[in-house]
Amino acid sequence: MSRTDRASRVVAADPATVYGALLDRESLETWLPPHGMRGRLDRWDPAPGGGFRMVLTYLDHDEGPGKTSAATDVVDVRFAELLPTGRVVQEAVFVADDPSYAGTMTMTWQLVPIGDRTEVTVTATDVPPGIDQAAHEAGIASSLANLASFLEGTAT
């Protein structure tokens, strides 16, 4: 697997605030699920080598199919790198029987200050071939829009 998916957005918050939202359990549950999904964290260890398990549920079950079940995607994430100066690297493995979702996808969250705002770029490498590229990039963009709304105090 060598595919790379990417999305970026400028957020009206400083990098430290964005970094905090990446490592706060309640925040992550609120903004990370893309449009049309809700999320729940079953495990949480915000330290290098730690991670989390997120269960994403489609709000409209007909919009699936999920990777883990008809209505859910479950992903186990390990924090490979946590740099408060502006970088979070996650290794993500989908819980799925379908081999087209197998493998470890790396998600790199890069935070670049732009005045009092932050450009957040998410780069996903080694994306499993079963994940549709356009849908995945739209999902990342949706999560970034949620992050911006969450941090800027506007509705998602």
Automatic annotation (TrEMBL):
Highest taxon of source: Bacteria
- Domain Activator of Hsp90 ATPase homologue 1/2-like C-terminal: start-end pairs: 13-152
Q: Where is the signal peptide?
A: none
InterPro entries xref list: ASHA1/2-like_C, START-like_dom_sf
Q: Which Pfam families does the record match to this protein? A: AHSA1
The family assignment reads:
Belongs to the AHA1 family.
* The protein's name: SRPBCC family protein
Give the species.
Answer: Streptacidiphilus monticola
